[in-house]
Amino acid sequence: MGGDGGAVVGFVGLDLFSFELASSLLRSGFKVQAFEISTEMVEKFTELGGCKCDSPADVGKGAAAVVVLLSHPDQIQDVIFGDEGVIKGIQKGAVLLLSSTIPPLHLQKLEKQITEGKEQIFVVDAYVLKGMSELLDGKLMIIASGRSDSITRAQPYLTAMCQKLYTFVGEIGAGSKVKMVNELLEGIHLVAAVEAISLGSQAGVHPWILYDIISNAAGNSWIYKNHIPLLLKSDIDGHFLDVLSQNLGIVEDKAKSLPFPVPLLAVARQQLILGISQMHGDDTSISLAKIWEKVLGVGILEAANKELYKPEDLAKEITTQAKHVKRIGFIGLGAMGFGMAAHLLKSNFSVRGYDVYKPTLVRFESVGGLAANSPADVTKDVDVLVIMVTNEVQAEDVLYGHLGAVEVIPSGTTVVLASTVSPAFVSQLERRLENEGKDLKLVDAPVSGGVKRAAMGELTIMASGTEDALKSAGMVLSALSEKLYVIRGGCGAGSGVKMVNQLLAGVHIASAAEAMAFGARLGLNTRKLFNVISNCGGTSWMFENRVPHMLDNDYTPYSALDIFVKDLGIVTRDGSSRKVPLHISTVAHQLFLAGSAAGWGRIDDAGVVKVYETLGGVKVEGRLPVLKKQDVLKSLPSEWPFDPTEDIHRLNMGKSKTLVVLDDDPTGTQTVHDVEVLTEWSVESISEQFRKKPACFFILTNSSSNCIFLKQASALIKDICTNLCAASKESGNADYTIVLRGDSTLRGHFPQASLEADAAVSILGEMDAWIICPFFLQGGRYTIDDVHYVADSDRLVPAGETEFAKDASFGYKSSNLREWVEEKTAGAVPANSVESISIQLLRTGGPDAVCEFLCSLKKGSACIVNAASDRDMAVFAAGMIQAEQKGKSFLCRTAASFVSARIGIIPKDLVLPKDFASDKESCGALIVVGSYVPKTTKQVEELQSQHKQKLRSIEISVEKVALKSSEVRAAEISRAVEMADAFLRAGRETLIMSSRELITGKTSSESLDINSKVSSALVEVVSQITTRPRYILAKGGITSSDTATKALKARRALVIGQALAGVPVWKLGPESRHPGVPYIVFPGNVGSSTALAEVVKSWSVVAGRSTKELLLNAENGGYAIGAFNVYNLEGIEAVVEAAEEENSPAILQVHPGAFKQGGNPLVSCCISAAEQARVPMSVHFDHGTTKHELLEALELGFDSVMVDGSHLSFTENVSYTKTITELARSKNIMVEAELGRLSGTEDGLTVEDYEAKLTNVHQAQEFMETGIDALAVCIGNVHGKYPESGPNLKLDLLKELHNLSSKKGVVLVLHGASGLPEKLIKECIENGVRKFNVNTEVRKAYMDALTSGKKTDLVDLMSATKTAMKAVIADKIRLFGSAGKA
């Protein structure tokens, strides 16, 4: 939207400012129409090409934006809502710009009235003012505020109207609030300036001298520099006080209403009222200087009219006639003093120094100085003695205290007092030195400039004293200073100038604190507020220097708060002695005292803001707040009600362009499936893709690791775009849109900063706009009101405050995307020129509104996209496709969510090993971790914690592979390869990672070089591993890219889907080293701390040990599972190997008899074997006949237990079973129980035939109410061998029991499966048996192998028995129908 299309902008009211605004719009190509009652102004306007309107209503007709001047709330009704008011003519979707300084509350009420009464009117408050800084002197500035969508709509007009635009997103009224903060500062600065000039004049310093020195020093402000000359020339009258007082009254009232303390403002206003009271009635013609003379009792004008001189010229005189100095004594080697003394050494003086802090003396000696033991020791044989101590007490002590300097000081010595002390102290000291009778001379020479300038000899020095004294010290003063002023008036005059400077500096720091805290209380963005005020009349040297400390919450003491406790104490004491009332200075002094009393005396003097923060409950720190995610998402408008995915599919089937995603690393595929990836970009490969006519394909550029420097990135993009053009022509002019997929946490090159845009445009031609969209739901990245957030649990953290922003190579500060663009482009793309699509527009306007907005963008502009849901992204994508079909072309810099939305991806289930058949592989998985972000480190720690038994870790030393010799590097790589091959062959999940201590270089390029060496070391390790892994997981963008392309030699891959939200799985191409092996690309910045462990768990060969799950799967699949009794390691291995070979689930079963012999070690072996098996397997405790043994079993890690109360009465059995079931449920352990009783013998337990009982169906119904999961039935089956006549199973009873159990969700179990014929087994399965207990036949196979006598060696015997048992188990597995069901 802009002048290109000749949009119409209307004005209601034309004053000097708005006339300039209208003129700017006309020059920019807009059509401008206006209503104004002043004939003269209308004539000027029409001469420029503007159109005159007859009423405010006419102004709105056909206008895309209307600017309304409001100087008073009373105008609102007539101008806006009257019979011919603006609202009568304004069109739907127009922008209403309120150019006003009326209070924010009125503006907010007005906005509510307008938006409630008229749909889709975008209201923006626009405060217009002229810049005061050197950069913007006299240029128009606009402070605009409003909702994000309103600001976005108004942006083209605002930008065209002014030279500097500041936008505050949120409530309207920010302009009025900024105005109040600025007026607060101007009022305080004016009163402080008058106090300063009055005190200096009373101290005998010429006002114009004060003005000239301080306007170039730390005490300067815009008010001081621009108003003091008018004051001294009597060119400003009392009317100024009246206007300023009224404005400050509004500010003070606002502060009271909040409530918020503004003591400096309050006392400044009282001074203004006192000044007004000195005027005669309504006569405001009296000069301001005369008024202040009456108020303060100082003859300012008389002092200003005295003879002038140039302090710089006097300084030149004394330095050119300076006496030679050989030896200098220096007392006070603090931060400033040490730098001064060290610089004198560099200037070839001999310097002997003293300080009470002994380590400083050692340091002084190390730079060539001579250390003294006392002030007296310093003073021997010196020509000049420099004193640079903290205060008057210390100065007195070093001169006249114990071992003081005066006692031994040589006659004729010149003492230079460089400390900030009161003029009265200096005058008194001069008299005392004269009375010593040693011809001692004193130079009053306070310094200013800070530690750095002290060390460089670039201080500002204000010297005073006798001519002889000044000439004696001239060489020293000259060596230490960049600016040397000699002040007439004798000793004390120099300190008088310094005192006045400190008065202003102290007040300006305190007023800056009051202003920024007040702004924070008003709800303003403090960093933006600082930027605005720095260009306004409220600025000062101290404001611009100290407020950044407040914004950064950095109170490193460059100048301690206690220094101003001392310096303003000097000011107030001197004012009192000279009878000059210093109201503003006294209040500022009290604020510093309050800070010191609170314990902040030793922090930076900007820390005085903490007084306001504590009292007002605010934070000036200019950081965006961390928000509650749920609250923010709830506050947004409802999503667009229609899912545009079908429309996207329809559009993609038509004329939609193929989306070509140039991805700097493989992690960008994290939201798509069934999309191909190329890792090289030959014309042939791209042509092949175009011929397939896909909706999308990726080209992996690997620019994260390879294109370290901007020019390299540019060359790579140029190469790819050239090949894309050639391939497009070769494939019949295939049309496409390019997306540069970037990091969702804003790391990496911004295209326009990295020359990538120029590279793409040089090949593809100029684009209509850059689209910047880092939203990525799966990674918790949201863009709201132009601010990009990273979700951390239930919080939204501004991206600039996260660990990602501190990246050694690609770090940044800004969370606001507009400001981020400006930061990344080093100001080439100003924040206020960046367009924005708001969530409001997406959710209320839908795809059509997006299309309209995109089509209206100025060619070549940058546009950010706000989004907080996948629906938002889909709406944008649909609108963008519409715009493309209208001929628009875009280059996109986006995160992964945009890609899936743009091609209409419909989510599918997570990818698991069964989708690849990789669960049949016997080797371990390979996990490669190179990412250094804290999130990855936490994820690795959690992985190691959760997978202790199966995971093996190999840590590669970053120091050895990146910083040591090639031999050390090669040895470290070989070590890792050898261990990895061994672990993988043993079936262990193998983690290869770089050491977690982050090693960075001195520069970002050095850090990237270290990263590159580490990445290449990981590549070499993976390249040299010979074992084929079950799957490969690479963690981190650079790591996953290099592993795929360099280590695995993949040239293409297919994205199958996701292993976890945001974690893509690739199927590597046939040309790769491991074709068909699943390749999991795990981004460094995705997922919770447990995410990596979760993926490894879900991709383990067995996804858990649950007997209940095994049996439920069997019930659903119509097969049964074998539960095989085991007694030793050979038996356990026989079950595991048979089950793995048959790809069948199985149950390892421990009988009480076996447990009695094998104990805990046997159970532990079973559990370990089940956990490491490549098929689902659980461990079951069989026939628990006593409560004691079952309670023990529940604590040993069994997955299920059998409660055998068959020897009890039915009632006792029910009670017994119910008790154990309740205990087992609390531990998530499955329970099997028996009803009826089997005859036969098992592990020494015999039940005679007469004791056997069949299961009673009626009792079974009640028995199942105990909560059991499985019922062991007695239908004629026996433990051990069946009689020669064969088994006689009651299948009709089994059928009845199955009908009952299936209703209750209970599975049936049959003990005594040994010896049952195949036909009977199958009939049992058909009638609901899902678990068969097998013991006798397996035991017999073991005993037969043991007693055959064919094997004599123990190892051979173990092998033979295992083989024999395995054969029986495999037969049973096939018989039960579970083979292939794992």
Structure description:
The chain is an alpha/beta fold and 1382 residues long. Helices cover 47% and strands 16% of the residues. The strands form seven sheets. Strands 27-28-23-29-22-19-21-20-34-35-36-33-30-32-31 form a 15-stranded mixed β-sheet, sandwiched between helices. The chain has an eight-stranded mixed β-sheet with strand order 3-2-1-4-5-6-7-8, with helices on both faces. β40 (1200-1203), α48 and β41 (1230-1235) form a beta-alpha-beta unit. α23 (493-521) runs parallel beside α28 and α40 (966-985) packs across α41 (1004-1024). The two termini are 62 Å apart. The relative contact order is 0.05. InterPro entries: 3-OH-isobutyrate_DH-rel_CS, 4-carb_acid_sugar_kinase_N, 4-carb_acid_sugar_kinase_N_sf, 6-PGluconate_DH-like_C_sf, 6PGD_dom2, 6PGDH_NADP-bd, Aldolase_TIM, FBA_II. This is Ketose-bisphosphate aldolase class-II family protein. Residues 926-1092 form the Four-carbon acid sugar kinase nucleotide binding domain. Residues 659-901 form the Four-carbon acid sugar kinase N-terminal domain.
